[in-house]
Design goal:
Blueprint (H helix, E strand, L loop, with lengths): L2 H13 L1 H27 L3 H32 L6 H26 L7 H33 L4 H8 L2 H24 L1 H4 L1 H35 L1
Helix pairs in contact: 1-2, 1-3, 2-3, 2-4, 2-5, 3-4, 4-9, 5-6, 5-7, 5-9, 7-9
């Protein structure tokens, strides 16, 4: 890696480690937002656009993964920060896995071109919106982190940030419950759509719902990091 680029990454961390992790988060979140567009195209039967958006998700995941590798190289040995390095590494890895799950969901969507009943299409749209609700909550908490650094992680500021986390976990719980409804609906249409389509659609449900689950798990790691600072 060029010395100049290493110094650039170092400067980002020296200025604000959470800002650097926030840049990684933008790639991760964009991959989920792109998956939402991809699902819309898939449900509309535009399978060419589906594959184009899958390629974009591949690029975003690759960029996020390279950023993760660079941060893992620089952070442990080169930066003095206010947060525990091992905790931040755990957070970074979990955050990166959100992009991995979005990529997995995108790949699985492309293995079969299915035409689903309108009722199931609406279920998928709602499931995706519920998952995005978790992502939007995640964004809000991460936006707080720069303010926390500005206050040197004051207990009051940390408390306000932590108070936002249960809403994300509640949204993730709602996704879990809704997944069961969607799966039941899919199996209720088995005679109409066939067993292979049931399997494919069921895996799509698991993949999309898994993003909400990983988002909640990642934000829980951040909560543990912040609790240590109180």
């Amino acid at each position: 890696m060029p010395r100049r680029y290493i110094r650039t990454i170092l400067n980002i961390f020296m200025d604000s480690p959470m800002d650097a992790l926030g840049q990684h988060a933008k790639k991760v979140i964009e991959s989920v937002d792109t998956l939402s567009l991809m699902l819309d195209a898939y449900l509309a039967g535009d399978f060419e656009q589906t594959r184009i958006l899958c390629d974009k998700i591949n690029d975003l995941e690759f960029e996020a993964d390279k950023m993760k590798q660079q941060f893992q190289t620089v952070l442990p040995n080169s930066v003095v920060i206010q947060l525990d390095t091992n905790d931040l590494m755990s957070f970074l890895k979990s955050q990166d896995n959100i992009a991995n799950l979005a990529q997995n969901a995108a790949h699985w969507m492309t293995v079969r071109d299915s035409t689903l009943p309108d009722e199931i299409k609406e279920d998928f749209r709602e499931l995706m919106q519920m998952t995005l609700k978790c992502i939007r909550g995640y964004e809000k908490v991460l936006a707080d982190m720069e303010n926390l650094e500005a206050t040197s992680y004051s207990s009051r500021a940390i408390k306000k940030t932590i108070e936002k986390i249960p809403e994300i976990e509640k949204n993730e719980y709602d996704v879990d419950i809704f997944e069961i409804r969607v799966l039941k609906n899919i199996f209720d249409h088995e005679e109409e759509i066939g067993g292979s389509c049931v399997y494919h659609a069921s895996r799509m449900v698991d993949n999309i719902g898994g993003i909400a689950d990983k988002t909640a798990g990642t934000i829980d790691i951040l909560r543990r990091i912040l609790i240590k600072k109180t």
